[in-house]
Design brief:
- The complex is a heterodimer of chains A (328) and B (202).
- Chain A contains 14 helices and two strands; from the N terminus they run ααααααααααααααββ.
- Chain A has helices at residues 7-17, 22-41, 56-69, 73-80, 84-102, 107-121, 134-150, 169-182, 188-198, 215-224, 237-262, 267-274, 278-298, 303-317; strands spanning 320-322, 325-327.
- Chain A has a two-stranded antiparallel sheet with strand order 1-2.
- The longest helix of chain A is centred in the C-terminal third of the chain and has 26 residues, at 237-262.
- Chain A starts with 6 loop residues before the first helix and ends with a strand.
- Chain B is of the alpha+beta class and 202 residues long.
- Chain B has two domains: 14-152, Roll (SH3 type barrels); 161-201, no CATH class.
- Chain B has a seven-stranded antiparallel sheet.
- The radius of gyration of chain B is 19 Å and the shape is elongated.
- Chain B starts with 13 loop residues before the first strand and ends with a helix.
- The chains are: A mainly alpha (328), B alpha+beta (202).
Chain lengths: 328, 202
Amino acid sequence: MTSRVTWEDLLKEYSEDGGPGQLWRLEVERICRYRIRQKQNLMLPAELFAFVDWDSEDLAQTVITERLLARGQAQYIVDTVDNIEYARKLISNEVAYTLEDRRVPNQVDNVWLNLEPKLKEAGWRNTTSGLGGGLEGEDAQVREIARKILNLKRLRNQGQQRLSPLFSGETLMGFAETIVRDHPGASAFVIQKALRTALSRISPRVSMEAVGSTQEEFGAVAGVGALQWADNLDASEGISEHARRIIEVLGAEGSEISFLIASGATQNEIAGVLGVSRPTAIKRIAQTQELLLEALNSLELGEEENLKILGEVFITLGVGITDGVLVK
Amino acid sequence: MKKNALYPNVAIGQIRKLDSIKGIASARLVAIAETDSSDATCLVFLLGNATDAATPRDIIIPKEITKLTYDLALMSDYLSRADQGRLVNNPVLSEVSKELIESVRSAVIESPFGALSIDQEKLAVSVGSYPAQKYDAVWNFRDSEAQNFALLTFTRNKTSIDFAFKLYQANYENLEAFCEPDVPIDAIRFRAFSKEKIEVAA
């Protein structure tokens, strides 16, 4: 099925219906299908994103109601966009945000889960009563706590396959003691709000589309990778299946190594993420490259197909290819 | 050029769409930071909808201020020059106060690194959060936004022939503009040539 929906079609429907209509829904659904396939390739269950199962219609409905309508993003797209490729990129980002918003736990939850026991250990008790200063007082407290969070020393990136704890146990303990000393009345709600203020909810796994690309670059992505923005998101089913098998062969560690290499990480950084010495990391990198090559050769396809599959593998892992160059 | 209440002249604080350059760069919303009638250009801040991905260098302008249906992220580090001609055919979507624009401009200079220091309460805006990780997709997104913005805008060179020609075009009917001391000699030559042609034709 080849889609020939133009930006003018979407714009016309938007102005006639006073909002996103059937054509918009179909576009969103197509992009949702692609994103879901990526998640499935990584063997991520739908429950992780608070869905019963992976259903592109459900996800599309959530994107439309929570992002395009409730947050006015459809209007932003109408106000800014002048071609279909750019519109698709923006919608794709909305799908990524929706999934990340629903992810359980997300980055903030992750830090909170580690922080809460430390707070209790330091003598903190959750209060549900007011802060005395009303909403204004609460906001001031949130900002003050957020500043303290921003000053905490962070851990190095722990890789893209899992959420990073961000802070060491020792750092969190020190922070918990600061809270008990300086903000004894701060409730869990206030501390979580401060965490949200200080930290982006976006984890390293979320792949935002580089919406700044030119139309030629969209074409390049479509040609080398499997996004197929310029034409059809559905056409890449076979490539996606091969990519899924290769990711399976690579395993969690191999995928992690592939992602880090493609992102330009140094051997030392890879060693840090894997928790091994540099010589061991070099050995594992070589093993991963060998595995990847074997997996591709076993498909017995041409160079062009192999390149497309490799592109899909990297895109699924959160890395893209533009103009033949790997981009994170 | 469209001329009605929806399409007024470019003024500081306006939020408008900066037209795309076909095959080169996509359109973006911008906030006008400074206008210059001498060559019909203006300085613009890049705006975007990625408020979830905003960093401490971005100002999140809530929809309550703009009366739009969405929040906007003003990327303070992305300030560049654009031709007014690529803005005037698009309606003014909203306006922000000159005070906000000035505050952001001075904050960027005063704090070139780290979080922007502006009076968030007084201006009723907020700044973004730090991305969580080194390999966060946010960095790549910002990189692509910067590249696109660089293609949409330009750096003015007052000694270039391009500037001289723009000044001549923008002030064709305004002879006084050519009497200023810093007017490029080329602009005066363009003006002189065109006048001769008119006289010959007459």
